[in-house]
C-alpha cells in the first residue's frame, strides 16, 4: 500500500471556489508553499510557525478571503522549484478558517453546502490574528501615505511605505501612528476602549463623528459648527473651555448672519482669532488644530456619497486635486491640509484608493488624465477664478 502524504497550505477563497467548481487545480507545488505534515496536526508548533510565515505572503481585506487547507496525495507533491502538478479537489481533507470571524462569515452562505469547515486551534488563531492586525495597519498606512503624498505634491514618485511622511507633519510626542491606528480600528468596530490614552478618545470622536443637529447649515459654515460640537463633546469639562466655546459659537453665528454665503477660506480669515483661542483648550488641538479638523470634515464630506460609499479622487463630487489647489493656496491651511489628508487616508485605507493609485502610477506620461495634466488644468482654473 502506497504511503499517504499530507500537506498544509493557504489559498484564496475565490481560487478555492474555482477548484471546487472545475474539480482540478494546476498548482505550483514547491516545498516552501506546501507544508509537509509528516503525520503532525495543525496545532503542532512547527506547522504553526510555517503557516504563520506563509500567510505573510497573502494580502486580503476580510478574514474569509483566505483558507488553510489540508490535502493528501498518495504520490506526494513534487518538491522541485517551479514544479507544476494537477491536484484533484477530492484531495482536500480538511478546510480551516483563519479566525473565528472568518468562520462565521464563511458559514453565512459563502461556503458551498456540504463542505465541512473547521476552526483553528486557539493558539494558532491568536498568532494569525496578530499578523492580521499588522496587515490591516499597513493597509491603513498605505492609504494615508497615498493621499498625503498627493497633498504634498510627491506624485512623481509614490512611496506607500514612507515613514517620514508622518514624521514630517506630526509631533510624535503628542500623537503617534499607534494612536491613530487604535482610534480607527475602534471606530470601525463601533466600540471605544476607555483604557486608551486621551489622544485616542479625541481621534475616535473625530473618526466617528456624525452631524446630529438638524439646525446646522448645509454650507461651508456647517463644518465650523461641527468643529464646535466635537470640541465640546471632548473638552467641555476642561476649565475655561465652555467660555471659549460660547464665544466661538457667538462669533460664528454673527458672521453667518452677516455673510451667509462666503466659502470656508473666507470664514477662516474672519474667525482667525476665535479659532486660535480654541487651540488653548487642550494640547491635542495644537497638533490637530481647528483648521485640520475642518478640512478633514470637508474632505470626508466630499469623499463619501450619501450611502457612505467612497468616491474616486477624480469624481466631480470629490476632486481631491481641485480641493488641494484651493486649500494649499493658503499658508494657514497648507500644513493642515496635509494632516487632514493623512487622517482621511488612514481612516479610509488603501482599499479605497488602489484604483486611483494605479491610474496615476501607470499612466503618468500618456494618459490625458495624468496627475501632471490634472494639476495643470486646476492651476489654470484657479488663475481664471473658477
List the helices and strands and how they pair.
Blueprint: E1 5-12, H1 13-22, E2 24-28, E3 35-36, H2 45-55, E4 66-73, E5 84-88, E6 92-97, H3 100-110, H4 122-151, H5 164-169, H6 177-189, H7 198-208, H8 220-235, H9 241-258, H10 264-270, H11 272-278, H12 284-287, H13 290-303, H14 320-327, H15 331-348, H16 354-362, H17 371-384
Antiparallel strand pairs: 1-3, 1-4, 2-5, 4-6
Helix pairs in contact: 4-15, 6-7, 8-9, 8-13, 9-11, 13-15, 14-17
3D architecture notes:
With 386 residues, the chain is of the alpha+beta class. Helices cover 54% and strands 9% of the residues. The protein has 17 helices and 6 strands. It has helices spanning 13-22, 45-55, 100-110, 122-151, 164-169, 177-189, 198-208, 220-235, 241-258, 264-270, 272-278, 284-287, 290-303, 320-327, 331-348, 354-362, 371-384, and strands at 5-12, 24-28, 35-36, 66-73, 84-88, 92-97. The strands form 2 sheets. It has a 4-stranded antiparallel β-sheet with strand order 3-1-4-6. Strands 2-5 form a two-stranded antiparallel ribbon. Helix 4 (122-151) runs antiparallel to helix 15, helix 6 (177-189) crosses helix 7 and helix 14 (320-327) packs across helix 17 (371-384). Mean pLDDT is 83; it is low at 365-369 and 381-386.
Q: How many structural domains does the protein architecture include?
A: 2
The count of strands amounts to: 6
Quaternary assembly: single chain
N/C terminus separation = 81 Å
Shape: elongated
Q: Per DSSP, what share of the residues sits in E-state strands of 2 or more residues? A: 5-15%
Low-confidence stretches: 365-369, 381-386
Average of pLDDT? 83
Radius of gyration (CA) equals: 26 Å
Strand order of the largest sheet: 3-1-4-6
Question: What would you call the structural class?
Answer: alpha+beta
SSE ordering: EHEEHEEEHHHHHHHHHHHHHHH
Number of helices: 17
Main sheet attributes: strand count, strand direction, barrel closure: 4 strands, antiparallel
Q: Give the helix proportion (percent range).
A: 40-55%
